[in-house]
Amino acid sequence: MSIDLIERIAKLRAERGAIILAHNYQLPEVQDIADFTGDSLELSRKAAATDAKMIVFCGVNFMAETAKILSPDKVVLIPDPGAGCPMADMITADGLREFKAKHPGLPVVAYVNTTAEVKAESDICCTSSNAVRVVESIDSDAVLFVPDKSLAAYVASKVSKKVIPYSGFCPTHHRILAQDVINTKREHPNAVVVAHPECTLDVLKLADGIESTSGMLSYVRKSDAKEFIMCTERGLLHRLKLDNPDKTFYNPSPLNICPNMKKITLEKVLWSLEDMQHKIALSVEIMDKALHSLEGMIAI
Ligand code: 13P
Ligand code: SF4
């Protein structure tokens, strides 16, 4: 790793009054230079609370948009504007309007993995760490849940309401197959299985713990077990190994990579600070409406 590159990022970060936020799936070297790493909810909270003038968001687009909506007066930069989330792109604002028209009168819960336009069309947001609580808090016997059908099914199994799912899913988590988990467990029978709720229900049925990315970090930290099969994107293994040098982690699948999360590199972080690129820009009307959905979530 180029020390020069890291030093140049540190110098520019100080000059610009910037904070670098990184999601738990970012490349190890990007996580290592970040001021703060976390899951979607923690990063949203940090973006809303920071005094920094500028946020460099190392994650995917919907996360940087969320930071901008929560901190509209700050400059929010994403080092690669092509870092999208295929699941978020599975529903558009028009698609959501059609879904609502098919189920008139029902409140809409939008996973934060959505565009600002979709959040603006929704009643409340949730993340993987608070989805159950958010759905429980709604004063209705049935809710629409977009876009992730896996998270919707997981939430439905935990609440007494009807959860009507949209058809979206995370391609990365769906590449982890139940058979992969069974095979890995056969090789390591003492290992505990921990899964992200974006996995398929077949995988979730095999899991001992179901958690958001930061929830998985604390699950492992608190557990007395020594071996873990981690059903999520492999970027999480970086922090897991740093935090738990005495524990062993297994990847159930060779395909558990989110190519979009890996688009952010140290070079792009430096260029982002140098050129003040790429700025997240959203219309005031969309931001105001999306803020309402995000604030509802944060209040819970
Ligand atoms: P977390 O909020 O659990 O970090 O999940 C975000 C995500 O995109 C998982 O694929
Ligand atoms: Fe989107 Fe899945 Fe990548 Fe998370 S892991 S950013 S849900 S594609």
Relevant terms:
single chain; about 300 residues; alpha/beta; Rossmann fold; 3 domains; 4-stranded parallel β-sheet; 15 helices; 12 strands; binds 1,3-dihydroxyacetonephosphate; binds iron/sulfur cluster
Q: Radius of gyration from the CA trace?
A: 19 Å
H/E element sequence: HEHEHEHEHEHEHEHEHHEHEHEHEHH
CATH architecture annotation of the largest domain: 3-Layer(aba) Sandwich
Please tally the helical runs, counting DSSP H or I stretches of 4 or more residues. 15
| Strand line-up in the sheet with most strands | 2-1-3-4
CATH superfamily label of the largest domain: NadA-like
Q: Portion of residues in helices?
A: 40-55%
What would you call the structural class?
alpha/beta
* Mean pLDDT over the full residue set: 97
- Per the CATH scheme, the topology name of the largest domain is Rossmann fold
Indicate how many domains the architecture comprises.
Answer: 3
CATH class membership of the largest domain: Alpha Beta
Largest sheet: 4 strands, parallel
Which regions have little confidence, pLDDT < 50, spanning 5+ residues? none
